[in-house]
Design a protein that fits this description.
alpha+beta; 9 helices; 40% helix
């Protein structure tokens, strides 16, 4: 019996692109779910256009963080808009425009560039699996894009951060692991005082989330910087110590990168504070960001 020829499967690098084209041809629209051994992502399609693309990988920044980093909006504005959207189901980007916080043309260009980077990274995966889930959905925004707008706007693959850990992220991870070797240390992270975002963290437990603690203590760093400015003190903060009944919290702003700080929590009963400060100073010198 003669067998019918098999249709060749798409090459690994073409899997996501093939499934995305299927989604864009669908009148219904829906979601493309992407998974590989190192990262995952989702692409939302509405009315045969891309409405959103998100990459979940070490070092990937979400759009709100990009807006804060580029000083387009403040962290406080983002928090208020997010709260409003949660309450009334509004679209985050459209609400920023409606409130007059970001001009529509600026928003469209920034969102296009951000989604281009996310999409290019997903399309470049060599071991990905992709699945199109048809799903009708209402989308309260005109900020959607044809695939040609996003692909042509995307940087060349060589300029994109790869979906695996970069050398910088690997160095951050190694430095944080060294921090956890300090006697008494049980949690550590590298945080950004401008956005409250953690760039890397180790340790902690169910009773102590180091990322939440660092985000909350960005206010401490900001307050101290403001106090120094008001007092006319032209110097740098070496470290800030918070002493609790059972813990020490040590904050060390980086001298080489404004806005970033190392944050380490130590058990007071077993920590040697002088040695901890000395070792944290050494770790800062080896940190590359």
């Amino acid at each position: 019996m003669e067998l019918a020829p098999r249709t060749p499967s798409p090459a690994p690098r073409q899997v996501v692109r093939t499934v995305l084209h299927e989604a864009l041809e669908s009148k219904l629209g829906g979601e493309v779910v992407v998974r590989s051994t190192t990262v995952s992502g989702r692409i939302f399609v509405v009315a045969r256009k891309v409405a959103w693309a998100v990459l979940n990988s070490p070092g990937a920044l979400n759009f709100s963080t990009v807006l804060i980093r580029d000083q387009v909006v403040s962290r406080e504005d983002v928090e208020q808009v997010v709260a409003e959207c949660r309450q009334n189901g509004g679209n985050f980007c459209e609400t920023l425009v409606a409130w007059g916080l970001v001009p529509r043309d600026t928003m469209r260009d920034m969102l296009r560039r951000h989604m281009s980077e996310q999409l290019e990274a997903l399309l470049s995966l060599t071991d990905a699996q992709a699945l199109f889930v048809p799903q009708p959905r209402t989308y309260s925004s005109q900020l959607t894009y044809g695939l040609d707008e996003l692909i042509s706007a995307a940087p060349k693959p060589s300029t994109l951060q790869p979906p695996v850990e970069s050398d910088v992220m690997a160095n951050v991870k190694q430095s944080l692991e060294e921090t956890l070797k300090i006697e008494g240390a049980f949690a550590a992270c590298l945080a950004d005082s401008k956005s409250g975002m953690c760039l890397g963290s180790v340790g902690g437990n169910a009773a102590f989330n180091i990322e939440t603690a660092a985000a909350a203590n960005t206010e401490v760093v900001r307050a101290k910087m403001k106090a120094m400015s008001l007092l006319g003190i032209k110097d740098r903060i070496e470290d800030i110590l918070i002493t609790l009944g059972e813990q020490y919290h040590l904050i060390r702003p980086l001298g080489t990168k404004e806005g970033l700080f190392l944050y380490v929590a130590l058990h007071r009963s077993s920590a040697n504070l002088a040695m901890a400060r000395f070792k944290l100073s050494d770790i800062e010198k080896s940190l590359q960001v």
